[in-house]
Design goal:
101 residues, alpha+beta, Aminopeptidase, five-stranded mixed sheet, 2 helices, 5 strands, globular
Length: 101
Amino acid sequence: MEENRELVLKDNTERKQFELNAEGHTARIEYMIMANKIFLTHTEVPGELEGKGVGSKIVHLAFEEIEKRGLKLIPLCPFVAKYLTKHPEWKKILADDVNIK
């Protein structure tokens, strides 16, 4: 992964996905927003970026953006849910009716 350059999250509202460009490839997290809740539905990391921490980085940046916007998270994507179990400090952005163990 590009260590010397800051990776920037892009919100592609037309495609309803967060995007992260790294090494000429784009990782993405698809989402839906209803009222003040954001549903993260699918995370995809190109094969060329697998094992380089890009998946975790895009989830982390998406969580920062969600918190900044004051949205409540509903993680429908298994990768996002697993990230939450490893980083319980982000449970603060979960919707009240969501419980991740």
